[in-house]
Amino acid sequence: MRPSRQATPADAGNGADGLRAKVSYLSDPASYPERPTAVELVQTHMSCVFLTDRHAWKLKKPVRYPFLDFSTREARRIDCEEELRLNRRLAADVYLEVVPLALAPGGGFALGGGGEAADWLVKMRRLPRRLMLDQALREGGVERADVTALIRALVDFYRGAEPVPIDPARYRLRFESGIREGYRELACGGYGLPAQAIAAAEAGALAALERETVALERRARERRIVEGHGDLRPEHVCLGAQPLVIDCLEFNRDWRVLDPADELAYLALECVHAGAAWIGDVALASYREQAADPVPAGLLAFYQAYRAGIRARLCAWHLHDHPDPADQGRWIARAQRYLDLAQRRACADPVRP
Fold it and tell me: Rounded to an integer, what distance in angstroms lies between the CA atom of residue 45 and that of residue 167?
């Protein structure tokens, strides 16, 4: 993590009050040059996204976690530039520009103004909600051709990516460390998850890793590791004649350096979780054919078990932000569902809703 530097005047609004002031300004339709009819706010751990009629504007929160540091204006500006650069690989005409949120001379803010920048936003073209894969699969609007077109775009992307050299033993160790650290946090974090389920999922993942060590290390030895998307989920996929993939994991390159088969196994897992296992089946079969990559079924199952464990931990993290008992119950149920998927994939059992 980068150490914090001396704060500048523009960083003075980094705290909760400063963020509230920015959110209040950006929630007002009059703040935008396009004068939208309304502004919808969507929040994540790390960002506030303001949806207008035609655009999406992403503001980074001034947060600091072990895996990222957005606590300064400069750090947020750099991350905005990286988000623009990296996402143009798979959605070139969606990611438009980085726009300053300037301090106005008389106080307050001016979006795109010429004064000192208080913060920065990524401006994106808003995509049709009905074409996003998560929405389309809920409405039963996904065709086999949609999935094969998506895989064709991803295979072209992976083929154009430079292989990232990584020592095979180090590649394997990355997974072992991730399993042990992740499940240790779930067991000790006070999330209220069943200890038996956590232990079973961890034991299954470690056993699957042992079984797939040769295949896993072969992937590194064959130079199949590339800098990919890093967060390939249905909500980040836009279907259509030219499929688009948005919202890559821009803040941590290590998490983007992966096996394409791992990334696609993750997408397949998320489709299972959403009740559309057939999409994952088609995606993986299409990848094997189009990429001429006969990735072993056991290795794909291990990748899914590993990813399910990560997703269980991410669900548990949401408990810190959702004190309402009903919300907490939903996040605990989701985490338990991922733990069940992790254990079943570690055993290479079929997974169906």
Answer: 33
Domains of the chain, by residue range, sit at 9-126, 133-346
What letter represents residue 153's amino acid?
A
The CATH architecture annotation of domain 9-126 reads 2-Layer Sandwich (3.30)
Distance CA 179, CA 258 (A): 16
SS3 124: strand
pTM of the model: 0.90
Three-class SS state of 65:
strand
Q: Virtual CA dihedral for 71, 77, 78, 84, nearest 10 degrees?
A: 130
**Ranges in the chain, pLDDT < 50:** 1-12, 353
**Domain range 133-346, CATH class:** alpha beta
Question: Phi, psi at residue 187, to the nearest 5°?
Answer: -75, -35
pLDDT per residue over 80-119, tens digit each? 999 999 999 999 999 999 999 999 988 889 999 888 999 9
Rounded to 5 degrees, what are φ and ψ at 43? -115, 145
The pLDDT of residue 6 is: 30
